[in-house]
Amino acid sequence: MSSLLKRLKNEVLVLDGAMGTELHKKGLEVGECPEKLNLTHPEILTEIHRSYVEAGSDIIQTNTFGASRIKLDEYGLGEEVEVINRKAVELAKAAANSDTIIAASMGPTGKLLEPLGDLSFQKAYEIFAEQAQILEDAGVDVISIETMTDLQEVRAAVIAVKENTSLPIICHLTYEESLKTMTGTDPVTAVTVLEGLGVEVIGANCSMGPEGLLKIIETLGKNTSTYLSVEPNAGLPILDENNNTIFPMKASEMASYLKKFVDAGANIIGGCCGSTPEYIRLVAEQVKKLKPKSKNHQAETKLASRSKTVVIADNLPTRIIGERINPTGRKELSAELKEGKMNIVSQEATAQAKAGADILDVNVGVPKIDQVITIKQAITTVQNLVNLPICIDTTDAEVLEAALQTVVGKPLINSVNGEEESLNSVLPLAKKYGACVLGLTLDEDGIPKTAEGRLQVARKIVERALELGIKRENILIDALTLTASAQQEGVQETIKAIRLIKEELGVATVLGVSNISFGLPDRKKVNTAFLAMAIQAGLNAPILDPTIEEMKATLMASDILVNRDVSSQRYLKAYGQNKEAEEKKDTKQEEKEVELNILTQIQQQVLTGDKDNISDNIKKALDDHSALEIINRALIPGIQEVGDKYDEGIYFLPQLMLGAEAMQNSFAILKPILEKEGSKENQGRIIMATVKGDVHDIGKNIVKIMLQNNGFEVIDLGKDIANETIISTALAKKADIICLSALMTTTMPRMEEITAKLKESNSNIKVMVGGAVVTEDYADSIGAYYSDNAVEAVKTAKKLVSNS
């Protein structure tokens, strides 16, 4: 066991504070690579590390946050990745005491992963694996993954570290005021995924001051027994009268939160931006008086999408696994999958989610197609439309791994069985990717006829999974349904097997229901009767068609009778006195949806981010509508509704980006027509840039896409752009607005310089500013307009152009 994990049993440990804040104090220039100082000014790094050790830090973090190859490439230093990382570890060790724990800091790539961006999961994995291997070889004690906002990037980083090193992991995500990450992940979902991956310490850093992060730690503490870590900022940064970055929270104020953090479950406490050795000294003095809180959170079977966790338990409602995305016996779906189309997959995902499915099974088992490509397309399609966890339905190891890399969250693998080949190929993938796994009670001899025989196979699967390090709560068992028409005596054996598996093995149970009635007339009656029997026996998650009302009603009624629906609340909500009126309303709504005109369909496709199918409707719409009419009556209203939902916290970055991509695909068809007709929908011309010294541009790129999709002509100059270039381009192009982005307080002064220069030249060009550290007060102080997200940027830009 590592020294970190040994000490965490009995101590609350102290992390160090900010690295960037201290580097800037010691002369790091704006726009300079912080990690380069490991080579050019090693004495500065050793001094900073030593100051934290002397202040009482038990753990110090190497100056390697941005030392991955992809980040170093931004400074032309990619080939120096090994020497920079090794030197960083050497410098930290030089400042350490004999009991100081050396944590290697690993930050995000600065790129969005597919489908939000261009970086593939595999490439991200390789980037993190390279850095992690170097750091372990250099002698660090633990890997500290920090300031992550994208759950998929977190998965890639953790899997890379786990598979390529033997080091424990501290993993921090960064959250917004909504208590969700930029891409919409809440703390419960984060801990569900990270627990599944075997992360030893889970936490939050940066984001906000201690008050905001306390809420995150409280939520994490209620949902896990895993060790927790927290690194709050010293408040939110502001600029003083000399344009120097300051963090307003005093060290004493920050230290006042320490007991609250420990009471909430924190085992490691440090500081992020603005927290100096003085802060850490006070933290250490207080923490040494505190003992870690004992944790006894009961382990749960949990699945997750990017933004939703589903818990499977005997005292919770029965969970529905929707079965309809499966080409078996469905010619139209099979034909579409062969053609690479996802229309039916989209329809089935949406319909099942609306009907009440909790989890969606995805199967693309069509002969003579590339199932690796198809499973990735299908899962991406489903994830883009609904926020339900995925059940990956395949026995092919290559297809399974492709699916596991595509799923954002914690999926269920359907399935493994008792055959040696299956156990050896599927279980290691479940362990690697932190998935739950469904075991089928069959082996080389087929399906045992008796319940006892199926229990024996189930026991073998569970024991093998446990030996591999898969936790019991991540194992589910399917006792298998045989057809009542052919094997009537086997029905009761399945029911008995469910009971035995629950009693003997203590795992959650799954069962495909509809096979019971194969070959019989009026199958719904048989299916519903069997479902009720299975739930009584302990079934947790049936695989069924949620759009069949009789099945759903039987499930909900059964939950009342087995005490899974407390006070019949779910049943009353679904079938209360207003149900009849709601059904009539739903029927009318369905009829109305059938009659939707083509423009309304397009608007809906923007709203759902249906970027793959919108092009067909755009082409159809051109038969009866002009390009300009399609834009004004369908596309613009659609993206405006996307923006409204984003503002309301209903949508997050993934939905925003998908809606924008649907718009882009539409404009690709309409733009040539508009130009040919001599009609150009142009709201105004905008120059965009990330200011000099700042190499961050994810936020800027999102704003650009949204502005373009709302009719603005956008000239994007890129990142790290000199003031003179921005101003001269804006004047030459006769821009209406200059949009400036900055992620660091040290680069914010460039914004003021640009507004001052424009004022001197008597230019009427408006300036809009934004970025993680920029505030409305700051924008007002420099005579600029402010926007805190892409949706607001569009609204502000429209106002500025209309008022000019």
UniProtKB/TrEMBL annotation:
Describe the location of the B12-binding domain by residue ranges. Answer: 683-804
List where this protein forms a coiled coil: 571-598
Cross-referenced SUPFAM superfamilies, in alphabetical order?
Answer: Cobalamin (vitamin B12)-binding domain, Dihydropteroate synthetase-like, Homocysteine S-methyltransferase, Methionine synthase domain
Q: Which GO terms describe its cellular component?
A: cytosol
Which keywords belong to this entry?
Answer: Amino-acid biosynthesis, Cobalamin, Cobalt, Coiled coil, Metal-binding, Methionine biosynthesis, Methyltransferase, S-adenosyl-L-methionine, Transferase, Zinc
Q: Name one GO molecular function term.
A: metal ion binding
Ranges for domain Pterin-binding come to 318-562
What Enzyme Commission number(s) appear in the record? 2.1.1.13
Pathway terms, separated by semicolons = Amino-acid biosynthesis; L-methionine biosynthesis via de novo pathway; L-methionine from L-homocysteine (MetH route): step 1/1
Protein name as catalogued: Methionine synthase
Q: Whose protein is this, by species?
A: Orenia metallireducens
Q: What is the lineage of its organism?
A: Bacteria, Bacillati, Bacillota, Clostridia, Halanaerobiales
